[in-house]
C-alpha cells in the first residue's frame, strides 16, 4: 500500500496535546467504511496521535467519504 501525501508544510511548531512532543510528518493508517488508506499526516512520534487540519477534513477527505458512501 502506498502512502498518499496530502499536505505540505512544517508542522514541527505544533505539539501533541497528550505528550507535548513536536509533530512530524509520518504515515498514518485511516479506515473508513471497510477501506484502509495510508496518508502522510502530522503525528506525534511518541503516541501516534495525528492532526487532521480542518481544510483537509472538510475538503479532500469529505470528497473521499462521499465517493465511498456512494459505492
Description of the molecule:
- With 71 residues, the protein is α+β, with helices and mostly antiparallel strands.
- The protein has a single domain (3-70), classed as Ubiquitin-like (UB roll).
- Helix content is 23%, strand content 30%.
- It is built from two helices and three strands; from the N terminus they run βββαα.
- The chain has helices spanning 54-58, 60-70, and strands at 3-5, 24-32, 35-43.
- The longest helix is centred in the C-terminal third of the chain and has 11 residues, at 60-70.
Compact description:
By secondary structure, the protein is an alpha+beta fold. It is built from two helices and three strands.
Overall 3D shape? elongated
The name CATH uses for the topology is Ubiquitin-like (UB roll)
Unreliable stretches, pLDDT < 50, 5 or more residues? none
Number of strands: 3
Integer count of domains: 1
**Helicity level:** 10-25%
| CATH classification, class level | Alpha Beta
Going by CATH, the architecture would be Roll
Topology (elements, then pairings):
Layout: E1 3-5, E2 24-32, E3 35-43, H1 54-58, H2 60-70
Parallel strand pairs: 1-3
Antiparallel strand pairs: 2-3
What are its keywords?
71 residues, alpha+beta, Ubiquitin-like (UB roll), 3 strands
Amino acid at each position: 500500500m502506498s502512502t498518499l501525501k496530502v499536505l505540505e508544510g512544517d508542522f514541527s511548531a505544533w505539539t501533541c496535546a497528550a505528550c507535548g512532543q513536536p509533530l512530524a510528518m509520518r504515515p498514518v493508517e485511516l479506515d473508513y467504511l471497510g477501506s484502509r488508506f495510508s496518508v502522510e499526516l502530522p503525528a506525534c512520534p511518541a503516541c501516534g496521535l495525528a492532526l487532521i487540519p480542518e481544510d483537509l477534513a472538510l475538503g479532500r477527505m469529505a470528497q473521499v467519504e462521499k465517493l465511498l458512501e456512494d459505492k
